[in-house]
Amino acid sequence: MHTTAAATPMPRVLIPLAQGCEELEAVTVIDLLRRAGIEVVTAGLDEQPVTASRRTRLLPDTTLAAVAGQSFDMIVLPGGLPGADHLAADARLIDLLRAQQAAGRYLAAICAAPKVLASVGILDERTATAYPGAIEVADYPRVRFVDAPVVVDGPVVTSRGPGTAMDFALQLIESLLGRAAREQVERGLARAV
After folding, report:
1. Which among 147, 148, 146, 150 is positioned nearest to 182, based on CA atoms?
2. 76: nearest Cα among 54, 100, 52, 56
3. Has this prediction a pTM greater than 0.90?
4. Is residue 88 part of a domain?
5. Residue 18: what pLDDT?
6. Fewer beta carbons within 10 Å, N or C terminal of the chain?
7. Can you give the pLDDT at residue 175?
8. By residue range, what is the domain housing residue 29?
9. How far apart are CA 122 and CA 94, in angstroms?
């Protein structure tokens, strides 16, 4: 009798969407991860459509409350203001981030959102980047902030801002699925690999 190995399930990624998020970052990450076949779940902080920083309206797949007990391979925080501030103020999200860290699973943030990770100690003793001026570096002496487009430090990936969103998303694909998957998506985008 011939048996076939079960297919490895694709990673699941949670992207919380807050009012005032940076739509270029959010949509770029959602789009590229889905191009790679990754299951992306977008979750609003409430049941309302999300009006992003440039007034683009986004319709999350679900709510943060509905996914609170679920497991994800990665949680990605889009930046933008006041979106990142809304993420930082949501106790349910902070609990999810702490549980993700405790489980050793991936966390990622771009633009102003690395401040959310820094504020709960997730970036302590790590190297990270963020949008210039979005974080008072002196407030986080245990974090090594660098001026780089994308920084990977263990299971934590950070990026600078809207202009680095594509590189950030491609790095997330590489972190979850490997270099070959990243290169396949890049070829489909007509980017030099």
Report:
1. 150
2. 100
3. yes
4. yes
5. 98
6. N
7. 98
8. 12-186
9. 10
Model confidence over 51-92: pLDDT tens digits? 999 999 999 999 999 999 899 999 999 999 999 999 999 999
- Whether 6 is in a domain gets the answer no
What is the helix (H) or strand (E) element at residue 166, kind and residue range?
A: helix 165-177
Does any domain span residue 1?
no
Could you tell me the end-to-end alpha-carbon distance of the chain, in angstroms, rounded to an integer?
Answer: 42
49 touches 101 (CB < 8 A): no
The CATH number of whichever domain residue 95 belongs to comes to: 3.40.50.880
Cis peptide before 78 (omega within 30 of 0): no
Q: Residue ranges of the alpha helices (H) in 56-160?
A: 64-67, 83-88, 91-102, 114-119
Distance of CA 125 to the CA centre of its chain: 20
118: in domain? yes
Q: Is the pLDDT of residue 5 over 90?
A: no
Please list the active-site residues: 111
Domain tally for the chain?
1
Hey, what's the torsion of the CAs at 162, 175, 92, 81, to 10 degrees?
-10
Which carries the bigger pLDDT value, residue 3 or residue 15? Answer: 15
